[in-house]
Amino acid sequence: MARTDLDALALNALTLEQKASLLSGRDFWTTKPLEEAAIPSITLCDGPHGVRREAGGSDHLGINESIPATCFPPAVAVGSSWDPEVAARIGAAVGREGRALGVAVVLGPGVNIKRSPLCGRNFEYYSEDPLLSGVLAAAHVAALQAEGPGASVKHFAANNQETERMRVSAEVDERTLREIYFPAFERVVTQARPATVMCSYNRVNGVHASQNRWLLTDVLRREWGFSGVVVSDWGAVQDRVAALAAGLDLEMPGTGGASDRRIVDAVRAGDLDEAAVNASVRRVVALTERHSGVSGAFDSDAHHALARELAAECAVLLKNEDGTLPLSAEARIAVIGEFAARPRFQGGGSSHVHATRVDAALDAIRALAPDVAYAPGFALDGSGDARELREAAAEAAASADVAVVFAGLSEREESEGIDRETIDLPAVQVELIRAVAAAARRTVVVLSNGGVVSLEGWHDDVDAVLEGWLLGQAGGSAVADLLFGAVNPSGRLAESIPVRLKDTPSYLNFPGEAGQVRYGEGVMVGYRYYETVELPVRYPFGHGLSYTTFAIDGLRVVRTGDDRATVTMRVTNTGDRAGKHVVQVYVSTAAGPVRRPVRELRAFRKVSLAPGESRTVTLPLDRRAFAYYDVPLGRWAVAPGDYTIQIGENASSVVAETTISLSGDSVVPVVSLDSTLGEWLSHPLAGPALLRVLSGGKSRRTEEDDENGLRMASSMPMGRFLTFAGIDIPHATLRELVELGGSDGAAA
């Protein structure tokens, strides 16, 4: 039984060496026990979408074999479900399997934002939007931890690329961090209370995340109230003593005692406060409450069926001309592409799961239709004659009623540790799609990829496109269910599909240079950028088709306070099939002193409706739905003004909207002699007083001329302006102006 509450007496009974030993791993996956204090060792393992519990040798990149477990749809797919229930059911199942395999902490989920489609680890992340990512991750964590093991939300923070991930410095302004890269972590921490938070490898504004006190203590613990263990990403610690002082509790993996000695030496030399050691020891000991050894078992058949059910919720029907889908079981079907027989269902690296079984789409399609021909079309290993394979596929397509081409990216093209260089499909696959489309009566393309791929060069030649992402071990059967209409597609894009790579907002700044990556696009990430600058994309964030149709009416927005509101509407299934619709609520405003995206997702809900059924949906918009992060004030602020509540078919297409006015916050800024003249002039109290002092008893025309001149110099600091202009204001009067500019500001 673990000692979960290390009281002062018990803590004082431990030597400094014993305490230090608890703060790093025993080996690659386990912590050190302290038997004399009844503190057990616990096992941590990878597992954002399935448990990777290694049976033999240890590695962090999925090279060695692990114990069989269910590979559920990775986060790239779950993000497109837009359904916290899907995330929760996966989290619960992973928790059950973790418990059955003796795992105390499952490393996941990953909530880093998809800043660029080139990030090689995007398959482990949910979305380009912090609200969507945070809601899904919080559901996953809460359900996983309800089963016993702890979760480790990762990678904190600004870890949005693999290039030089161990040392690159992400140069990000605070508003961008607060509005884009922090909120998913904040939601998980405050709502789901994860057992651990994993720090990232990279530096943030020059300071390694593992020893960044502002991140790990000021923001994570003091602002968000996190009370769990901060664990390092494996090998992320640069300076163990600095990391411990900053708030990093547990270093993984073990260092053979080297880190323990550094901690002991630093305390004895007076370079590290032993109170910091004690605080981390208490948190690590509390984490050992998760220790239970192997407990229970999991039903691999039931979990495989669950993986199939949930995978079908995640695929996105991008295009469906003239009702090409769903397919008829009586149709002559040509299945083309090696991915149909050898499915790509997960990414490479540390999250790689040894699946209990794998469904191939070809087998599942043949189980549903009697007349199915197959041609590989291309070879994943590059063997064979590409032209011969392509011509054989075109011949099979010409003899069928419909050709279904399975295309995508191989695992070697998408893996932890490596960023992609292009979003294009391999040329051999593009040539295959075009050849098949030219020969077939109708052509469907099914994509298997962990990050966005370009649809250019072939999209307009085909009749339907199903974005399957990576769907886990049962994805092949789920795709068949979708193609034949056993399940109605309900996924929506969690990331924009651009027309060109160079259109992406981070294009000129990714992956950086000279050891730095500048987040120059600021808050204009993903759809926020495309919609604000009116740049067309192939398919926008939130896009997804169905085999039925939906309508929204009766939009009503009611203010419920100075800075919040409630949105109500009616959603109707106007088609002849049961289906699910994702209600997407965006907020648009120009209020406030900062540039805002043209619209931002602020609420969503997935609704299941029978044919002809209507349902009233009510969604609250809290203060944060209208707020921006005010850096000078150091807090969230809601500017007084108009806010347009928009219901989007997707981020680009608004189907209903209404505008409300909010009184918001009464914020009067503090001004000093270091403030600009423009800031003085805009101050509600100090501004008019300053103009009166400067104008003296001049005529109205002269006052207007002087005021125009003052506005021309508005960017100059006040003290410098007075000197530059040779304006001599009596000291007492100047002091009164400064007090006038600061007293109300301080009160506010």
From TrEMBL:
Pfam families: Fn3-like, Glyco_hydro_3, Glyco_hydro_3_C. It comes from the Bacteria. GO terms for molecular function: hydrolase activity. Residues 581-651 form the Fibronectin type III-like domain. Keywords: Carbohydrate metabolism, Glycosidase, Hydrolase. Belongs to the glycosyl hydrolase 3 family. This is Glycoside hydrolase family 3 C-terminal domain-containing protein.
